Amino acid sequence: MAGIVPSRTSDPVEAASLVADRGAAILVGCGTSEADARGVATRVWHDQVVAVPDPAAVREGGDQDRKKYAFHERLDLHSDGFAYGDKAPDVMALACVQDGSVGGESFLADGYALLEHMDRGLRSFLLDVPVDQTEPGAHETISPIVLTLPSGRRAVRQPLYAQPAPGTDSPERDGLQIARWKDLTAELSASVPRFRLAPGEVLLADNYRVLHGRDPYQGERFLWRVWAWTTAGNGTPTGPLHSDSRYAFTQA
Ligand SMILES: [Fe+2]
Fold first, then answer.
1. Would you say residue 101 lies in a domain?
2. What is the pTM of this model?
3. Is there a domain that residue 107 lies in?
4. Within the chain, where are the H helices?
5. Per-residue pLDDT reduced to its tens digit, 167-213
6. Is 235 part of a structural domain of the chain?
7. What is the CATH number of the domain that holds 203?
8. Number of domains comprising the chain
9. Which residues lie at CB < 5 A from ion ligand 1?
């Protein structure tokens, strides 16, 4: 129900429309250089793009990025850019340069569909109760896991870090609901449909609507990740930006 298998297109205009309608799309026939990756957000979203920083090289452990994920483990459904807190990038692109020899399939879930169909207790917790989502060393973020923008657009998030906010009147309840949300997305990570990105294909996703993950893999796998902030997002963070969290930390 919540799984998304993105449609493929070679037309950037159609890709933008697919992302708007369904949350994700795959743009095919793309170049695989860093410059190609950097240009993809502007090709798709044009003047809606407010900021598109340098791409980040995604391989085992990332390039310059901290080693949070192991290639031999499944990377469960999550949202990107949580070190930027409430100003996380609202769209993202993953440009495949080299797929692994085995595994590494991608999977997506529609956060808006999840929100619609989950039980009311969890839904109101995610929408209303502030949670401490601060990544150690990054700027403090205390806000509901599902952020509602002034425009009404929602950002459904699954950050790596979440704990009851200091001063909450019910840390036990908050801890249980945080764990339920984590469990729900972990279970979905095992069951949503898979798809495989080939070299020259770029996965485009609405990072406020769609959670993404990937299967374990073997062999060389290399993608460019591009985070972008558009006029439909929650504003751009202050300071320099990159397509990883290197500038989001108060102490680098
Ligand atoms: Fe990610």
1. yes
2. 0.93
3. yes
4. 12-22, 34-45, 111-117, 120-128, 171-191
5. 999 999 999 999 999 999 999 999 999 999 999 999 999 999 999 99
6. no
7. 3.60.130.10
8. 1
9. 80
